[in-house]
TrEMBL record:
This is Response regulator receiver and ANTAR domain protein. Residues 126-187 form the ANTAR domain. It holds the Pfam family Response_reg. It comes from Conexibacter woesei (strain DSM 14684 / CCUG 47730 / CIP 108061 / JCM 11494 / NBRC 100937 / ID131577). GO terms for cellular component: cytosol; protein-DNA complex. SMART domains: ANTAR, REC. The modification 4-aspartylphosphate is found at residue 55.
Amino acid sequence: MSAMRILIAEDDPVIAIGLIARLRALGHEPLGPASDGQHAIELAREDPPDLYLFDVDMPRVDGLTAARLLAEEGLRRPIVVITGVDDPDVVERSIASGVSAYLTKPIDDRALDAGIRLAASRHDEFKALEAEVNRAQQALEDRKLIERAKGILIAATGITEPEAFRRIQRAARDRNLKLVDVAQRIVDQRALLERGEE
């Protein structure tokens, strides 16, 4: 795994110093440390890191809330949370906040390294899944547009649906365009004609 820039948020300065040393020993670049969740949000906005290493229990804004707020702002990153208590409620909240790995104090180097690797891997899986969903959504939008264009051609010329589709295909091939681009032009031209008829 390549070196990562990791933002630390930990309100106990002794633990924060220990985390900085451990991250450096693992070959990562520690950022911060932020003394609370609000400070972590400000630091992440100024200089977005590759991963968040947040303590759960911090003053002002806790680590889980900070991670959720950052994700809502478009600054979602892999998140490793640290807690002093093994509390099932915190685990539930962590999962709901999109946390990728969960560590209980005291943390050793192996656990920290494993947590970072797991968080990065889960985040990559999530991004790939999200891209797939977006592609599927785009494909659906493209199909709807092509259907509209076919409908316009059928209404305008009285040709069959397969013939309308063939015309769109031919136009795409002849002009070296995508089907959806030809469909968009047909829909746009129809809209222009309708405005001209008003």
